[in-house]
Amino acid sequence: MTERRTFLKVGAAAAMTAAAAATTTRLVAAEAAPAAQTAYGGEHAPVPLPFDAKSLKGISEKLIQSHWENNYTGAVKALNLVRARLSAAVQDANTPPYLYTGLKREQLARTGSVVLHELYFANLGGSAQAPASVRSAFAASFGSFDAWEAEFRKIGAGLGGGSGWAVLGYNRSLRVLENYSMTDHTTSPPNTTPILVMDMYEHAYQMDYGAAAAKYVDAFFTNIQWEAVARRLEARQA
Amino acid sequence: MTERRTFLKVGAAAAMTAAAAATTTRLVAAEAAPAAQTAYGGEHAPVPLPFDAKSLKGISEKLIQSHWENNYTGAVKALNLVRARLSAAVQDANTPPYLYTGLKREQLARTGSVVLHELYFANLGGSAQAPASVRSAFAASFGSFDAWEAEFRKIGAGLGGGSGWAVLGYNRSLRVLENYSMTDHTTSPPNTTPILVMDMYEHAYQMDYGAAAAKYVDAFFTNIQWEAVARRLEARQA
Amino acid sequence: MTERRTFLKVGAAAAMTAAAAATTTRLVAAEAAPAAQTAYGGEHAPVPLPFDAKSLKGISEKLIQSHWENNYTGAVKALNLVRARLSAAVQDANTPPYLYTGLKREQLARTGSVVLHELYFANLGGSAQAPASVRSAFAASFGSFDAWEAEFRKIGAGLGGGSGWAVLGYNRSLRVLENYSMTDHTTSPPNTTPILVMDMYEHAYQMDYGAAAAKYVDAFFTNIQWEAVARRLEARQA
Amino acid sequence: MTERRTFLKVGAAAAMTAAAAATTTRLVAAEAAPAAQTAYGGEHAPVPLPFDAKSLKGISEKLIQSHWENNYTGAVKALNLVRARLSAAVQDANTPPYLYTGLKREQLARTGSVVLHELYFANLGGSAQAPASVRSAFAASFGSFDAWEAEFRKIGAGLGGGSGWAVLGYNRSLRVLENYSMTDHTTSPPNTTPILVMDMYEHAYQMDYGAAAAKYVDAFFTNIQWEAVARRLEARQA
């Protein structure tokens, strides 16, 4: 355990040093998919923060570091353990289906937490300017960029004091960019590519802002990594 | 209402006639995405059954027709209505965020039902033979095709007597083919492309099998449209 | 397994014979609490149907028998097994808290299913006349008995084609009779005594009515055991 | 709004002054049920903190005051508004059942939050000694008082970093004292009287402890108002 923690901290430190390097390279690396895996097999390795933890405006180093270390890498650890349990349970004829399904729900929860946290960190650490390509894509679906932002913020406000995620996603079945409100890690629209992800669990802001969720949403908006958003938008039709 | 019902029935009848036509063309058409839409705008039109309702083995015409007409087109109608409400509520400053979020949850539920039902019908109506490309892809992730099938059936059994979906999906973030168990329309793993979808709500089998969910799962397996599965597999990396 | 099934069937048969006996005695017995138990210990024994399975109007013997045998006693069996697993897991230091919590969620789901099914069967098997005491209590909270019925039916309609429970409950904290809509076995208002419980899972009606949930709700209303409702109402303040 | 806030603060201040008064009287008053209400009618008034906000050990005045003012009274305000909407929607024939059900879900969520928060505050503010009557009742169900505490803490740990409630409840149908794990305000076992309630939403500890949920659970245990627990235990069989 101690060794693992050490390893994670070294990993994070490395990422922070890397933060000084070329931005594009770093971002691509941060979001690059891990090596292909087998179902409930293999170990998922935590992805380091793709920005300097000290660099965010209005989100403290202490908070983002705790968020990454406790909530995100905790979810990674849990996911790996759930997978190991699934691997054993699937071969055990004594596991009744409804208990197996209980484990599958944990898989869904941990998978959701890991994937959404990675997407969240990867769309943080940028400047506040959305490029024209993003603005026009949002406007095409929401009427205007501002109309998109207003709904996204409203979803955040609706989740404040509770738990969940505000997600702008591209629904590949319905071929539409929509904002979604999810109350936990297990809820998501099917067949949807997340474009912008905002964590609304209280660990994303309580340490800095207490119950003032709206101030966190303001801070989130000033740190959006729009290049990551633009890249996801481009890739969405694939 | 009567007119709409008539329209829907005509649509279904047309699809059934079409069922005699070239299979590949039809299937591609059935799964082809609708025209790009705007967020909570536009009307989603029901997609006709992509096979002759009389053609399934072990799933009666009466059941599949009721499933399509009542459950699926009911969800389409509900989705269109929820979108209209969202469109009004987003512009109404008197809608507090947590009530707006309540509407967003309905959007998530109806979107999930529409998308999953369309994927479900589109992977039914085929023969029982999985092509080699599918078998080897499943084996690569699950150890063997049979191991995949055993887990997928176990998930179905675990949901029997309740509600939900068994889904084989390709998680684009984790780059892995996995089976998932979802207890309602709002649960899904994020950033995941559904490859094979099995409805485990009781409307998918009670009318034919009563509580004998396992017999329905058998019937489902004899009707899988493996060409659709193969096509989704090929497109998953895009 | 065979033996157990036999036992259950004998139990059910006995209950049906008993159905000819004095109504009041039987009903009290049916709802009488089991012997006090220990946490996740002991075996919960299925409660026989408190009425003749042939006696319901508009709900077939086949359906109610399947509902009792497959869905309800299946939940009892599952609850007993989950409890045994909990009993082992709580003493196993190797069970991480979040996996333990997964088991607790199964406990919640099975407990909900067992308790709600027992309350449901116990408020079925009666005549259609609500006594004056019930009518006035409902009117005091809802404006009129008819207003109560209208909302209760609306909740049923809203759950049709999905899963869940419509429940009239007495909230002991808020001191109010209210109708609640629950989408699965794990949802309930806290500190609330159920007064009337209507199963809206599709196994409660699909076999008889297909997707026509409204017809089932009509049938449910003609079979309400109002004496049970009156008794629960009287006991609610305790 | 300003006026209302002022009123609430005065109410809280009054409660704090009252905290100096006789303990028993205060506690009974704090948990005393409000006047009987009508379904989704009437205004629920916030219950003041039943202890001096400065008096808790290891839970700061700032945190508990924010918890009460933002999370709890926010839920009260939301509940009153949802009830007003329900009152209008139930009479509006244009509200389709599934949209009405969406509102009912909000009612369930806000009711859960209000009731559980009131029970939580009412079982805080005490000394760390559980009386003999409580110890023996817990031991009767869990084997020993320590076994009860170990499971209750394990549930808390399993919810750490997420959201939910750890609840010791008396299930009136199963006649058993059990611990339950609930992941949001809408989940509860049916027909159950809460005996001890621990908030595991992050707003209950992040401000003081960051991600260190276990330290909060320690603090919670040193502040349990065991007299309230004993009183609920006594009343449970009623």
List keywords for this structure.
mainly alpha; 9 helices; homotetramer; 3-stranded antiparallel beta sheet; 238 residues
Question: Would you give an account of this structure?
Answer:
With 238 residues, chain A is mainly alpha-helical. Helices cover 55% and strands 9% of the residues of chain A. Chain A has nine helices and three strands, in the order ααααααβββααα. Chain A has helices at 2-18, 23-31, 61-89, 97-122, 132-142, 145-159, 206-209, 213-222, 226-235, and strands at 165-171, 176-182, 192-199. Chain A is globular. Chains in contact: A-B, A-C, A-D, B-C, B-D, C-D. Chains C and D meet through α4, α5, α6, β2 and β3 of C and α4, α5, α6, β2 and β3 of D.
What is the fold's blueprint, element by element?
Four copies of one chain form a homotetramer.
Chain A: H1 2-18, H2 23-31, H3 61-89, H4 97-122, H5 132-142, H6 145-159, E1 165-171, E2 176-182, E3 192-199, H7 206-209, H8 213-222, H9 226-235
Antiparallel strand pairs in A: 1-2, 1-3
Helix pairs in contact in A: 3-4, 5-6
